[in-house]
Amino acid sequence: MASPLEDPVLIRPFRGHTAAVTGVAFDANAAELVTCSVDRLLILWKLRTPCNAYRFSGHAEAVTSVEFSPDGRVLASASQDHTVRLWIPCIHGESSVLKGHTASVRSVSFSHDGYSVVSASNDKLIKIWSVCYQRLLFTLFQHTGWVCCAKFSPDGRIIVSCGEDKSIKIWDTRNKICINTFSDYEGFPTFVDFNPSGTCIASAGSNNTVKLWDIRTNKLLQHFKVHRAGVNCISFHPSGNYLITASSDGTLKILDLLGERLIYTLHGHKGPVLCVAFSKGGENFASGGVDAQVLLWKTNFDTLDYEEVLKHNFRRTHIDDPPHLLDVYPRSCHFHDEKITSVEVDPTFDVPDIQTPDPVIIDIRTSSYISTPDVGKSEELPSPSASPLARSSKRKAESESGSAVLSVEQHRGISSSVDWALDHIVGQLEMLTLTISVLEERLTCTEDKLKECIKDQQKMLLKGKQN
């Protein structure tokens, strides 16, 4: 049976990964989709006809997160191999490795201008990296457990992070300090992100919940418990009016934030859904799961007027009373009726062409050194020459050779002794980074103790004067 025009519809599945899909992201024009997986690979899917795909390898362990830069010219990925990689999505497969974490890196995200990347790791640290210079800028540390996710605000001034210490922290990027903390004692947050205006954050919880917080008033605005298992990922629609959630119960759910209600439950994955993301324009969204499938969906519901959506869905959905905005203490859940909670969309019945053949996937051999490739040899992939990463790489190549950019074939000819020397240098830099982090932490503790001593001395002086 066909879905009404306003219902989301499955456009097609993509099959190319051999293990669970852990991350999905669109480029700025929704012409490309990048996915990452436990199979250690990234796949770049060209969505426009003819549909092609390119598979990138380079990480030594499972890839946990991937994201396009705002201009779409650079990719960032995080992995359980303790590294972050910056990629130029071209047929040369060039990437740069950012080392500094000492445990699995859980998430990676670009700043609004594309010049910085933030990573979150199981080493309890958040690191901010320069894309242009491919080096560590600074480290944030106050989490006492594994950090699951970190995101820049839309204006880049603050960062939000969440961890298994059951806290959500707000950081000032200029002063490099934690300015606020939200605690969640029911479970730990697994994912967090800003709404498009940057005034609110939404968190996904291991205890099946989704929460929205106003960072201006520090209040919990909405609290949904619509899933039957942990929520792994969330994504805001660009309008800020809708939120989509991905859960281990095998479903995607779409929340109407204006009406504070659940409106759609989407089926299609066979097993837990690990990631979901709207395109930048909101016309499409994609999801990935343990079944190794990537599903591409057409949004539809955002094209109609809000009142029209309610009128069309009135007989097909049960609408219960939304929580009041002052319903913060106690922070009670906005429970929905378990029998009829939303419009159910099952692509098995709604989409006749789910067996569309998958595009041919071209394997890209990765180069460990980033250079600017010849534009004429980039096939259908974009030229990376205008990106900050490419510009910095070009400057490096010019300073070393004083002539044209080195080719990939020349870099493959580097001797094993030079490779060993580079690895040794990288190892020493990692040790230096860790030493600096420890010194920063000790310096902070010393400053706090000095402040306490000064306060005690002032109190003693005041008592002496009074006596």
Can you tell me about this structure?
A hairpin with a 4-residue loop joins strand 16 and strand 17. The chain is globular. A five-stranded mixed sheet has the order 2-3-4-5-31, with no helix packed on it. It is α+β, with helices and mostly antiparallel strands and 467 residues long. Helix content is 17%, strand content 37%. It has five helices and 31 strands. About 14% of the residues have low confidence.
Number of helices: 5
Oligomer: single chain
The coarse silhouette is: globular
Largest sheet: number of strands, sense, barrel closure: 5 strands, mixed
Q: What is Rg?
A: 24 Å
Give the strand order of the largest sheet, numbering strands 1, 2, ... along the chain: 2-3-4-5-31
Helix content: 10-25%
Number of strands: 31
Structural class: alpha+beta
Distance between the termini: 89 Å
Show unreliable segments.
Answer: 314-340, 371-380, 382-386, 394-416
What proportion of the residues form beta strands (DSSP E)?
35-45%
Mean pLDDT: 81
Topology:
Elements: E1 9-15, E2 21-26, E3 32-37, E4 41-46, E5 53-57, E6 63-68, E7 75-79, E8 83-87, E9 95-99, E10 105-110, E11 116-121, E12 126-130, E13 135-140, E14 147-152, E15 158-163, E16 167-172, E17 177-183, E18 189-194, E19 200-205, E20 210-214, E21 219-225, E22 231-236, E23 242-247, E24 252-256, E25 261-266, E26 273-278, E27 284-289, E28 293-298, H1 306-313, E29 334-335, E30 343-345, H2 347-350, E31 361-364, H3 388-401, H4 408-411, H5 416-466
Parallel strand pairs: 5-31, 21-29, 25-30
Antiparallel strand pairs: 1-28, 2-3, 3-4, 4-5, 6-7, 7-8, 8-9, 10-11, 11-12, 12-13, 14-15, 15-16, 16-17, 18-19, 19-20, 20-21, 22-23, 23-24, 24-25, 26-27, 27-28
